[in-house]
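so my prof wants the structure for this chain in the tokens format not the other one, which i didnt know existed until like an hour ago. anyway here's the sequence
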Amino acid sequence: MKFAGGRRRSMEKDGRKKRGICLELFMTFGKIGLFTFGGGYAMIPLIQREAGENKRWISEGELLDVVAIAESTPGPIAINAATFVGGKVAGVGGAACATLGMVLPSFLIILGVSYLLQAFRSVRAVRYAFWGIRAGVLALILKALWTLFRQCKKRWFEISVMVLAFAAVALGRVSAISVILACGLLGVAHSRTGREKR
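here's what i got, hopefully its the right format
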């Protein structure tokens, strides 16, 4: 009986701990979703700071892997990244809480803005505010680019793939989906060639 009671208390304690982590995931990604304009890559610096530096849920190397996985799977990159981090920290419940935290602020804000935008669209101050927001979003995207580039290995293969992928999308107007798939196949082929040489 004592053993059963101790086991039950341990399970209750574990349950409370997991609920606490899930709530923390929800609040953390809710803050990221609420205070980041631009979505996608603009959110990566905040995910790095909150989930990586502050909470220690992921390392810098894991963040690079998260971005690669989130970019190569269907759905918005920031939401995919939140789902991945939540799943790593607290399983399915953590993934659900992190995803809901990331999505909920945007959903509520867009719902409110959709009712107000038509009424205030012609106001000059509102137009200027959006111009300022666009400039801020560009800065966040450039910060994300620098963060990812700094963490990426600087070997001839990675740099060649990066340059070719940029040229294909920016200059050749090739579909981003085709470029992502081609880069993934090139990476697999390169790793297999490297193993065969070793």
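also thought this was worth mentioning. The chain has two domains: 2-152, 153-198.
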